[in-house]
UniProtKB/TrEMBL annotation:
<feature type="transmembrane region" description="Helical">
    <location>
        <begin position="307"/>
        <end position="327"/>
    </location>
</feature>
<keyword id="KW-1133">Transmembrane helix</keyword>
<dbReference type="InterPro" id="IPR003838">
    <property type="entry name" value="ABC3_permease_C"/>
</dbReference>
<dbReference type="GO" id="GO:0005886">
    <property type="term" value="C:plasma membrane"/>
</dbReference>
<keyword id="KW-0812">Transmembrane</keyword>
<dbReference type="InterPro" id="IPR050250">
    <property type="entry name" value="Macrolide_Exporter_MacB"/>
</dbReference>
<feature type="domain" description="MacB-like periplasmic core">
    <location>
        <begin position="27"/>
        <end position="266"/>
    </location>
</feature>
<keyword id="KW-0472">Membrane</keyword>
<dbReference type="InterPro" id="IPR025857">
    <property type="entry name" value="MacB_PCD"/>
</dbReference>
<protein>
    <submittedName>
        <fullName>ABC transporter permease</fullName>
    </submittedName>
</protein>
<feature type="domain" description="ABC3 transporter permease C-terminal">
    <location>
        <begin position="308"/>
        <end position="420"/>
    </location>
</feature>
<keyword id="KW-1003">Cell membrane</keyword>
<dbReference type="Pfam" id="PF12704">
    <property type="entry name" value="MacB_PCD"/>
</dbReference>
<feature type="transmembrane region" description="Helical">
    <location>
        <begin position="21"/>
        <end position="42"/>
    </location>
</feature>
<dbReference type="Pfam" id="PF02687">
    <property type="entry name" value="FtsX"/>
</dbReference>
<feature type="transmembrane region" description="Helical">
    <location>
        <begin position="392"/>
        <end position="412"/>
    </location>
</feature>
<feature type="transmembrane region" description="Helical">
    <location>
        <begin position="347"/>
        <end position="372"/>
    </location>
</feature>
Length: 432
């Protein structure tokens, strides 16, 4: 019986191919465009560390003078190096890492120099963020304190620079020689929560990791936001009047969170900061709360999603009207089937199978529209490439929405048709 319905629906599709293609074009275009923008918004607001985000926390202390603090909130909410060191030393019970985004210049004999995206961090950065070291090792805390010139490369950079084995390889970075001690798995969270999200939330992944103390000693370039107060703007980054570091703590249990918060508040009170809720001078943000607070979805994406949803609504209304008109012309035909003994259920199933045939065409066109739309958006350089990449999941979503919206459009007309109770009423409605 099912095969009969399928064959019948395909035959009806061929008989009314123009109507069904018009419906497929309307819904396919609307669904495809909506999927493009919905995919961008979902990527921008997604969990960047699945399985770890619930245990990642970002402590914050507003170390600025009262005059600056009362005037405006700290936009980047970064830490100074002295404050970060105290928190790292106080919290030895927990895994913590202070870090900042940077850039280094790689010089190669006989080749143009290359600018690399760097992450300056303390020794536990890999265990805190969950980055696997696949060759060699990470640097130790002692090597970090000694400002050792050692680095860990990302897998992509390692394959490009020393495919035969990088551990022990030497790199010329900014006219200084650094030794490679390890290679880390490529790691690209979206957004790049470990950096300064107020400036660069959607950027390409880090290519090289260096000890934070080495970056300070060698005066390497920091690209994250830096706030300086109380004197010369060219202040030493290790000073107490320069905030530029992000600190992340791994706190897997509620007891860990409570104990860490108590340590943070105790240190804040020593500095004369107010720890009452609402003062925004001291905070311990869970990762997802921190991202929600920043509101990282670009306004262009939000606006375009709203417009695409309006377009999809118009397409659904027009498609439903066209389906209703098309089915209305078939009332006499379907009434004859009822008169010959077909149940209402049989007629409804037949109409649904015909809608599925149109829905498959709509889904296919939605996938094509999504693919073309994603490429157009990515080529426009309006939105970051990290959130405009095509995904197989979004393609499946576009195809599924194409089928589902077609079925939804046909539900009301099909129910109305199935209410036909006699040949006379069917022909009367058909003639009207």
């Amino acid at each position: 019986m099912m095969l009969y319905y399928v064959q019948l629906s395909l035959a009806r599709f061929k008989q009314r191919v123009g109507t069904h293609l018009a419906i497929a074009l309307m819904l396919g275009a609307g669904v495809g465009i909506t999927t493009v923008m919905l995919s961008i918004v979902l990527q921008a607001s997604s969990d960047p560390a699945p399985g770890r985000s619930s245990a990642l926390f970002r402590p914050y202390l507003d170390a600025r003078p009262d005059a600056l603090r009362s005037g405006s909130p700290d936009p980047g909410q970064s830490l100074t190096w002295p404050d970060a060191k105290v928190l790292l030393n106080q919290g030895r019970t927990w895994k913590q890492a202070a870090m900042a985004g940077g850039a280094v210049t790689l010089s190669r004999p006989g080749e143009p120099s290359a600018r690399l995206r760097a992450r300056f961090a303390t020794s536990e950065v890999f265990s805190v963020l969950g980055i696997a070291v696949v060759q060699g090792r990470a640097w130790t805390a002692e090597e970090g304190h000694a400002a050792s010139r050692i680095v860990v490369l990302s897998r992509v950079l390692a394959e490009r620079e020393c495919a035969q084995g990088c551990v022990g390889h030497q790199l010329d970075l900014g006219r200084r020689t650094y030794t490679v001690v390890g290679v880390a798995e490529d790691w690209h969270p979206v957004p790049m929560f470990q950096g300064d999200l107020t400036r660069r939330p959607f950027v390409e992944p880090d290519e090289i990791y260096l000890p934070l103390e080495t970056a300070i000693a060698d005066k390497l370039t920091v690209v994250d936001g830096t706030a300086i107060w109380g004197g010369d703007q060219d202040t030493d980054p290790a000073g107490a009047n320069v905030s530029w570091l992000q600190l992340w703590a791994w706190l897997p249990t509620a007891d860990d969170v409570a104990a860490y918060r108590a340590n943070l508040n105790a240190y804040a009170q020593e500095k004369g900061l107010r720890i009452e809720p609402g003062t925004q001078q001291v905070a311990l943000w869970p990762l997802m709360d921190w991202l929600d607070r920043l509101g990282l979805v670009p306004e262009q994406a939000r606006m375009q999603l709203r417009l695409s949803l309006i377009l999809l609504g118009v397409c659904i209304v027009n498609a439903a009207a066209l389906l209703s008109f098309s089915l209305g012309r078939r009332r006499p035909e379907l009434a004859i089937r009822r008169a010959l003994g077909a149940r209402r259920r049989d007629v409804f199933i037949q109409l649904m199978w015909e809608s599925i045939a149109a829905g498959v065409a709509s889904g296919a066109l939605a996938v094509v529209t999504y693919t073309l739309g994603s490429r157009v958006v990515a080529a426009g350089d309006v939105l970051p490439s990290a959130i405009t990449a095509m995904h197989a999941g979004a393609m499946l979503m576009a195809a599924g929405l194409g089928v589902v919206t077609t079925l939804l459009c046909s539900l009301v007309p099909s129910f109305e048709i199935c209410r036909v109770s006699s040949l006379s009423s069917a022909f009367a409605k058909g003639a009207a």
